[in-house]
Design goal:
Blueprint (H helix, E strand, L loop, with lengths): L6 E4 L3 E5 L9 H5 L19 H9 L6 E5 L14
Antiparallel strand pairs: 1-2, 2-3
């Protein structure tokens, strides 16, 4: 995977990555969830426009694997570092 070209889009619930090097331009994502995937916009992936499950389902249909999706989870609460005396 070409990490320097990898595009990352994230909502509060889901992170979507897109690798243009392996995309075969089948347009499955555009037809499946047009509110999220729209190439007419500069930021063409907007995962916040659908539920996490809808995004995960749409991404799972990508025939090349250029799109990947992951749930955004936090297993540890945000904690400030301890104060030094």
């Amino acid at each position: 995977m070409a990490r320097d070209r990898l595009q990352v889009y994230q909502s509060n619930e889901v992170r979507v990555t897109f690798d243009p090097e392996i995309c075969i331009h089948s347009r499955v994502c555009l037809r499946t969830l047009p509110g999220v995937f729209d190439v007419s916009r500069k930021r063409w992936v907007r995962p916040e426009n659908a539920s996490a499950s809808e995004v995960l389902d749409a991404v799972s249909k990508c025939p090349s694997g250029a799109l990947q999706a992951y749930l955004v989870t936090s297993v540890h609460p945000s904690v400030s570092p301890p104060k030094k005396d």
